[in-house]
Design a protein that fits this description.
It is built from no helices and 14 strands. The chain is mainly beta. The termini are far apart.
């Protein structure tokens, strides 16, 4: 895995990113395969959400009652980048470090949000262009 130094933190390069095109239908972003999520909005108001972090040792079952690895674990870095703006806005819902529901909104390409997962939600480490409400 290639690593880039980002504001003093080491994160994977874009070659290790997951690309997701959001749509007006709410979808859950899945950063399990990569710590960088490259987002493309489709126009209008696009909606997405981040999964609640789960301890790695927690037992999570799928629909067939099989164990599965949590999508995000406490301590994991998640970098969200709007790489292509097709018009409109992109809204991402998540819980903050106190477990309170928050929404991060952006409308401009290259806006970036770097988060670290905690036991209750996410802490913002760096915000370039997102509005938090």
């Amino acid at each position: 895995m290639a690593i880039t130094n980002y504001k003093g933190l080491m994160v994977p390069t874009l070659a290790d990113a997951t690309a997701i095109t959001t749509s007006t239908t709410t979808q859950e972003l899945d950063p399990a395969g990569a710590m960088v999520v490259n987002l493309t909005n489709s126009g209008g108001t696009d909606l997405a959400s981040l999964p609640d972090p789960q301890p790695y040792h927690s037992k999570t079952l799928d629909s067939n009652n099989r164990n599965r690895t949590p999508k995000v674990i406490p301590g994991q870095l998640v970098k969200l980048v709007l790489v292509s703006d097709s018009g409109g806005t992109l809204a991402i819902s998540y819980k903050n470090v106190e477990g309170t529901a928050k929404t991060a909104t952006t409308a401009d390409a290259d806006d970036t949000l770097l988060l670290v997962a905690t036991d209750l939600g996410y802490a913002i480490l760096e915000n370039t262009g997102f509005t938090i409400s």
